[in-house]
Amino acid sequence: MNADGVDRADGGDRADGADRAEGADQADGADGAKEAKAAADADGPDGTEGTKAAKAGDGAEGPKGADDPEGAGGADRADNGDGADRADGADGAEGAEGEGGGKAVAVEWKLDGIRAQIHVRDGEVRVFTRTLDEITSRLPEVVEAVRGLPVREAVFDGELIALRPDGSPHPFQVTAARTATRTRARDGAEPVPLSAFLFDVLHLDGDDLLDAPGAERDAALARAVPERLRMPRVVTADPAEAKALFDDAVARGHEGVLVKSLDTPYTAGRRGAGWIKVKPRHTLDLVVLAVEWGHGRRRGLLSNLHLGARDPEGGGFVMLGKTFKGLTDKLLAWQTEALRAIAVSEDDWTVRVRPELVVEIAFDGVQRSPRYPGGIALRFARVLRYRPDKSASEADTIDTVRAVAPLLDAPPDDPPDPPPT
After folding, report:
1. Closest Cα to residue 7, out of 281, 275, 384?
2. Rounded CA separation 385/331 (Å)
3. CATH number, domain at 375?
4. Do 343 and 245 fall into the same domain?
5. Can you give the residue range of the structural domain that contains 298?
């Protein structure tokens, strides 16, 4: 397994009805105006001069497809703004920062949490997801943390995440389940508290800041919010300093960093080159066990791959999930012909093949899943290339996959670690 370089969104065709358990992203273009308008019209802290901020706030990108095989509340996974991803072999944040040509940028942690828009008005605090679900009553600890800020009226953009006592993140499913309910766990324990990390301010005490450049919004955020509630970041033109923050974030168990322009206003939808996500890339050499026929423009092509790792003890292969991402038209045509040539059975949906073809797969992490015999599944898997130079006997083993155990999501029945005292 490799873990070098960083990863860019592959832009693979999403026409296939890929299984949600495999972490297939939903399209990011859901209409943020839905949340915006409802947030603006809601009674309470977001109704007056914060209206413009509410209209473009947290919901600007719409739901981000959180991989949620355990049904953990369907919460919205946060990406600190859905910037473009990198995967061109650049050396972490150093490569992304270098695109600015020596110009200073903001580099901040990228967490695997829940995106939240937090509205404050005259001491009243309301918390919304970016699908416009109000979750204020479920998060008294977040309300309490924000209520003490020295502001009269504000709209903050931030991220909520469950942290262990040592500051490392709980698996995403713990955070997602925590925003879905305020009830106690089955063993009677208090729910895991969430920590708030604010990274933007859209309205502050009568001033709409949507059109203000990033540097101005950051300065306003720093005036209103103490460091302990802000997303860790540096502003720098030094690639080494940017990479140091990236390395620190990853070492703490977070996803990576976001590199943000200091000049761009807060805009709806993807930020493009204004906000760039930088994450480590992990890869595995896996074996294709079966493949599903594509849909839409992929109709007539074999598209959605069933992926397996070698089982050195029991023999055979252990399925880890599916993916249709990362496949170019040329590769789709090639794999359709190659997989039909080694087919052993097929129906209207799936072609099962001899386990011979090895494919290099990039992925973001591993989570527990009851859907597969090994009890684990890859998150956000995508195809990098086929490996004709390798035989199935040289593919990575299930033990290699389990070696990334720190990234495993806790199963729903496991009690979480106790909250810090």
Report:
1. 281
2. 9
3. 2.40.50.140
4. no
5. 282-407
- Give me the DSSP letters along 60-88: GG-------TT--TTPPBP-TTTPEE--S
Query: Both 266 and 287 in a single domain?
Result: no
Task: Decide: pTM greater than 0.85.
Answer: no
Rounded Cα gap, residues 323 and 77, in angstroms: 20
Is 325 considered catalytic here?
no
Q: What is the pLDDT of residues 283-319, one digit of tens each?
A: 899 999 999 999 899 999 999 999 999 998 888 999 9
Residues in contact with 350: Cβ distance below 8 Å, sequence separation at least 6, in sequence order: 290, 291, 292, 293, 306
Q: How many helices (H) and strands (E) does the chain have?
A: 9, 19
Confirm whether 8 is domain-assigned: no
Give the separation between CA 139 and CA 195, rounded to whole angstroms: 10
- The dihedral region occupied by 272, where left means phi > 0, alpha psi between -120 and 50, and beta the remainder, is left
Give the number of domains in the chain: 2
Task: Please tell me the number of Cα atoms within 13 Å of 414 on its side-chain side.
Answer: 12
Give residues with Cβ within 8 angstroms of 179, minimum separation 6: 73, 75, 114, 129, 135, 138, 139, 160, 194
Separation CA 259–CA 269 (nearest Å): 17
- pLDDT number for residue 158: 95
**Mean pLDDT across 228-257:** 94
d(CA 175, CA 193): 9
205 sits in the region (left: phi over 0; alpha: psi -120 to 50; else beta) called: left
**Is residue 18 domain-resident?**
no
**Active-site choice (34, 37, 64, 110):** 110
E strand or H helix at 109:
strand 105-110
Same domain, 139 and 94: yes
